């Protein structure tokens, strides 16, 4: 793919199965297969291992436990990544690439101290923080980067128009094979009592950004015509505090007389083993992605790869790469339209063209192509740093 072999360090914020961590692992694998020398850095609390094995070298940076204090958590992970990179020899890497604000701040601080010459930052999406320290950290992580990438044209435009940052789009990929012919489906169904007819799956836990409360309202409406339906909310290994939103969700479920628990109308799995998500997608009758904000929304492609029809928010970035042939649209602010879209998806799989349109969509988003694009942008990044140093 490229004749120039580079030593590349990728930085992610966690060892848990979140979208940005999956992106880092898959990108690292594709870069390694393309002939690059890749090391992945991730903070680890209590010796926790990376949730998925990687062919790349993985450096787990010991990070102190932090309780529920988000600011302390971020600071400890920044410090952990800085220490790990310095111990590994920061100057020995050609490219230092942060996938989030934690890694971005670790690299920004090392750049300010003169320990590194510059870094690359991928912005998946940006959050709205009430705490000024968190907001400042988020901004520094892209402002101080020498090269900024985004996973969708939507966010590339946002970075330019709203923040004055010139970025390049490098799309996500999807490992289709990981979501085909998955074993363990019966085990996961038995473990959580998944007997629903149908099963509606949402991945990412209970979060305001994931719009889980609105999905709950839509599910209650769906149960009027599908009384045995189950809503499965999988995953949720977030670093941010979603306790208040989760309490609202639980209280509303009680008001709607929807029991949460094994064999209940609502099943909340919490963080799962890697293979379990793929098994759930194959079991699901429909996968819902009603997010209010996403960088790309990789779950949609993963669900389609597993053969599950998807209901998706009719917002960017989804409207940039999906159409009526591959998904059922819904307004994320209207529970009625979400319920209607779920019913459409459950009737003859929503008319989604799994024979032609879905394979064509999945073929457009490969990690191999993402790696090729990254390598070209890395080479440009290195050249610009070299020119600046020689000027």
Describe it.
The protein has 391 residues and is of the alpha/beta class. It is built from 14 helices and 13 strands. A seven-stranded parallel sheet has the order 3-2-1-4-5-6-7. α1 crosses α14 (367-390). It is globular and about 70 Å long. The two termini are 30 Å apart. The mean pLDDT is 93. Residues 18-178 form the Glycosyltransferase subfamily 4-like N-terminal domain.
Rounded average pLDDT: 93
Architecture of the largest domain in CATH? 3-Layer(aba) Sandwich
Gyration radius, in Å: 21 Å
Q: What name is given to the CATH topology of the largest domain? A: Rossmann fold
Level-1 CATH class name of the largest domain: Alpha Beta
Domain Glycosyl transferase family: 195-349
InterPro entries: Glyco_trans_1, Glyco_trans_4-like_N, GlycosylTfrase_MSMEG0565
Keywords: Transferase
Domain Glycosyltransferase subfamily 4-like N-terminal: 18-178
Quickly list its features.
transferase; 2 domains; Glyco_trans_4-like_N; GlycosylTfrase_MSMEG0565; 6-stranded parallel sheet; alpha/beta; 391 residues; 13 strands; 16% strand; Rossmann fold; MSMEG_0565 family glycosyltransferase
């Amino acid at each position: 793919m490229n004749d120039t072999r580079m030593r590349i360090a990728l930085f992610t914020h966690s060892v848990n199965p979140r979208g940005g961590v999956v992106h880092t692992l898959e990108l690292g694998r594709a870069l390694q297969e393309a002939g690059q020398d890749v090391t992945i850095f991730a903070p680890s609390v209590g010796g926790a291992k990376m949730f998925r094995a990687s062919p790349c070298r993985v450096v787990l940076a010991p990070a102190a436990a932090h309780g529920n204090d988000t600011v302390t958590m971020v600071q400890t992970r920044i410090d952990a990544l800085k220490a790990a990179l310095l111990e590994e020899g920061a100057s020995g890497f050609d490219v230092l690439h942060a996938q989030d604000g934690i890694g971005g701040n670790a690299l920004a601080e090392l750049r300010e101290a003169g320990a590194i010459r510059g870094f690359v930052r991928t912005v998946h999406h940006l959050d709205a923080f009430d705490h000024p320290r968190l907001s400042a950290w988020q901004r520094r992580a892209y402002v101080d980067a020498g090269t900024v990438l985004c996973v969708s044209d939507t966010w590339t435009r946002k970075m330019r128009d709203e923040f004055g940052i010139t970025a390049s789009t490098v799309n996500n990929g999807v490992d289709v094979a990981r979501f085909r012919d998955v074993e363990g489906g019966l085990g996961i169904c038995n473990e959580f009592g998944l007997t629903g007819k149908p099963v509606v799956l949402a991945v990412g836990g209970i979060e305001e950004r994931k719009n889980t409360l609105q999905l709950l309202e839509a599910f209650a409406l769906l149960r009027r015509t599908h009384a045995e339906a189950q809503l499965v909310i999988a995953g949720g290994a977030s670093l941010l505090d979603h306790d208040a939103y989760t309490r609202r969700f639980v209280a509303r479920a009680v008001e709607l007389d929807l029991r949460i628990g094994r064999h209940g109308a609502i099943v909340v799995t919490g963080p799962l083993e890697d293979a379990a998500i793929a098994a759930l997608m194959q079991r699901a009758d429909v996968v819902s992605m009603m997010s209010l904000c996403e960088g790309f929304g990789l779950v949609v492609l993963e669900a389609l790869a597993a053969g599950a029809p998807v209901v998706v928010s009719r917002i960017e970035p989804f409207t940039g790469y999906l159409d009526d042939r591959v998904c059922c649209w819904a307004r994320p602010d209207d529970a009625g339209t979400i319920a209607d879209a779920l019913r459409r998806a459950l009737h003859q799989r929503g008319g989604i063209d799994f024979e032609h349109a879905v394979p064509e969509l999945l073929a457009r988003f490969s990690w191999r192509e993402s790696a090729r694009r990254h390598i070209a942008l890395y080479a440009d990044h290195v050249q610009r740093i070299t020119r600046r140093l020689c000027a």
